[in-house]
Amino acid sequence: MPNISARDKARVAGGAGFVFLGRMGALIEAASFIAFSWFYGTATFGLFAVLWSYVKLTTALTQIAMNTALQRFIPKAKKEDESLIAGFALKISFMISATVAGL
Question: Is pTM, for the whole model, over 0.90?
Fold first, then answer.
């Protein structure tokens, strides 16, 4: 088994901490739905849920899986091409989002 340095262990622990915080966001979102339905009642919460689903669907469509694409293509790209790939993804996502927002 290779000897792992203290610096590498700290980086792994820090990365795990950030992943944990990111996953906590999903728990907060789930708890917020319960809180909204309790505070505002079922009729108002139903309207909120419908409008929120439109926002989530529109966001998913306008991102066109660029996050996943960047995670797969950037590590495989040459160093000089990384910024070009990221810039292209941001430009495409922005243009689609701006078009949907304009409509």
Answer: no
